[in-house]
Write a structure and sequence with these properties.
By secondary structure, the chain is an alpha/beta fold. The chain has helices at 14-25, 59-65, 83-100, 121-134, 156-162, 182-192, 213-223, 235-247, 255-260, 273-279, 286-294, 299-309; strands at residues 5-9, 29-34, 49-53, 71-74, 105-109, 139-145, 148-149, 167-170, 176-177, 180-181, 201-205, 211-212, 229-232.
Length: 312
């Protein structure tokens, strides 16, 4: 079956914008719900995209959103706040809405190492939501990425900004990640949409190389021309820094983030098999993409670059 009418939940976020651009290149009609129409108006430049203000936790709004839809993509995720509502209750409501409206296909974004027994509520709730989707009876595909980087990300860009500080006390400096490029992630989603071999499957998604958090911060700072003095904090001070940041404006880190970083977010540092074996995607290295988009820091330059990157 070919799916030509798709509703993307979380479509106004970082990954969602990249995915929307890619899917509409394949002449797919998209419906993207948003809490605030004005804040998401930039999506209106994407062809064949209908932006609808809605409460995605309301069953009536969900039925309205899924009218005439063939497939659902759920990208909703939060690093802070009500994990249960976003990662558990929403998948439950989406599955029920799909069944009420005859939608049989769902693609779901989970997280690498999500599951019961993990130290953070983020990973536990992501794992619970993943199980809800996998046991739903729908044609489901689940993606479990490590940290995702690319134009507009909230990780490498943040590290670059932190790298401007002359001295940077860094919590959990030895935490491990295997960053994956957003372009590779959205290609995996797009190639899986109509592919029956991916139905009922879960895929860990990682890039070609593992890094410690310290290495990522050092690299992002270096690319943008900075050399901060990084002070790696031990376990107790890392927890303290997270607790302090959690109550500060901007909330750069939380205690739950600290607990998430106790679990290495890596697949196999020598063999990111899923991307190549399943979809024929050669994973993009951080060093290949990050220098390009990190250097486009001015608003106009960033806008022109994003248009270039999306082929528009």
């Amino acid at each position: 079956m070919t799916f030509k009418n798709v509703c993307i939940f979380g479509g106004s976020g970082f990954v969602g914008k990249h995915l929307a651009n890619l899917l509409t290149d394949g002449e797919i009609y998209l419906r993207i719900p948003t809490r605030n129409y004005e804040r998401a108006k930039e999506l209106l430049v994407i062809p064949a995209t209908d932006l609808i203000e809605a409460d995605i936790h309301d069953d009536r709004d969900l039925d309205r959103l899924l009218l005439g839809i063939d497939a659902v993509i759920n990208l909703v995720g939060v690093l802070q706040g009500d994990f249960h509502a976003a990662h558990v209750e929403l998948p439950q409501k989406l599955i029920a809405a799909c069944k009420r409206n005859g939608v049989t296909r769902i693609l779901h974004m989970s997280a690498l190492k999500a599951g019961p027994g993990q130290p953070s509520e983020y990973l536990r709730s992501k794992g619970e939501g993943e199980q809800i989707v996998k046991t739903s009876g729908l044609d489901a595909t689940v993606f479990r990425p490590s940290v995702i980087f690319g134009p507009g990300d909230a990780s490498i860009n943040l590290f670059a900004r932190l790298g401007r500080l002359p001295v940077l006390p860094l919590a959990s400096p030895h935490a491990k990640f295997q960053p994956i490029f957003v372009g590779d992630v959205v290609r995996a989603f797009a190639l899986s949409l109509d592919e029956p071999r991916t139905f009922g499957r879960s895929y860990d998604l990682c890039g070609p190389k593992c890094y410690s958090l310290r290495e990522l911060v050092e690299y992002a700072a270096h690319v943008t021309g900075h050399v901060p003095a990084i002070i790696g904090l031990g376990d107790a001070l890392s927890h303290l820094e997270a607790a302090v940041m959690e109550i500060l404006p901007g909330k750069l880190m939380s205690v739950d983030n600290y607990y998430s970083m106790k679990i290495d977010s890596v697949c196999d540092c020598d063999s990111p098999e899923a991307l190549l074996e399943v979809w024929g995607i050669h994973p993009t290295a951080l060093e290949e993409a990050a220098p390009i988009y990190l250097k486009h820091q001015l608003p106009r330059e960033r806008y022109d670059y994003l248009r270039h990157w999306s082929g528009r």
